[in-house]
Amino acid sequence: MSDLELRAGDDERQATIDRLATHFRAGRLSADELEERTAAAHAARTRGELAALEADLPDAPAPGAGAAARAKRRRERVVSTIAISGFLWLIWLLTDPGGFAWPLFPMGAMVLGLILDFWGGREDDEDDDERGPSGLPAPPRLP
Q1: Cα separation of 8 and 52, whole Å?
Q2: How far apart are CA 143 and CA 131, in angstroms?
Q3: Alpha helical stretches, state H, 44-102
Q4: What is the dihedral of CA 92, 93, 99, 102, to 10 degrees?
Q5: For position 86, what pLDDT does the model report?
Q6: Alpha helices in 96-123, H assignment, sequence order
């Protein structure tokens, strides 16, 4: 007996439905297709029936892919903050090195943004995950 002929469990059905919802949010499935495939997933008896529901879809991204992308964006923000601050200090040094240290103000705003980002500010990726391709909230998950 092949693996695809084995009976599917509730956890496998739910995992398939979760992946289908991910494809819907990515714009690969319409709302009607999601509804049809979700109903078919609930009715599926074997792993093969579940696999057929995703056969025409690419593999879903790895679970940690979003966290890795967020970490990369945060590193990029830190590097750009440092680069912009250095550039502002260079301008200050070349134009009026003995005068008022005005680069402190834009640096303070950028550092405050970094602190909010790292300490629990808004998470752009999490907001995007909750929305469908049109920007509307994703449909509720079926039981």
Answers
A1: 13
A2: 19
A3: 47-53, 65-95
A4: 30
A5: 95
A6: 104-119
- CB of 66 within 8 A of CB of 125? yes
Q: Tokens representing 36?
A: 């049809």
Q: For the whole model, what pTM was predicted?
A: 0.45
What is the distance between the alpha carbons of residues 141 and 16, in angstroms, rounded to a whole number?
12
Q: Position 1: which residue type?
A: M
Alpha carbons within 13 angstroms on the beta-carbon side of residue 57 total 23
Question: How many residues are listed for the chain in this entry?
Answer: 143
Strand partners, 137: 131
Q: What is the tens place of the pLDDT at every residue in 23-70?
A: 898 889 999 999 999 999 999 999 999 999 998 888 765 556 667 777
pLDDT tens digits for range 63-116: 566 677 778 888 999 999 999 999 999 999 999 888 899 999 999 999 998 888
What is the C-alpha separation between 97 and 90, in angstroms, rounded?
9
With beta carbons less than 8 A apart as the criterion, state whether 38 and 138 touch.
Answer: no
137 φ/ψ angles, rounded to the nearest 5 degrees: -60, 145
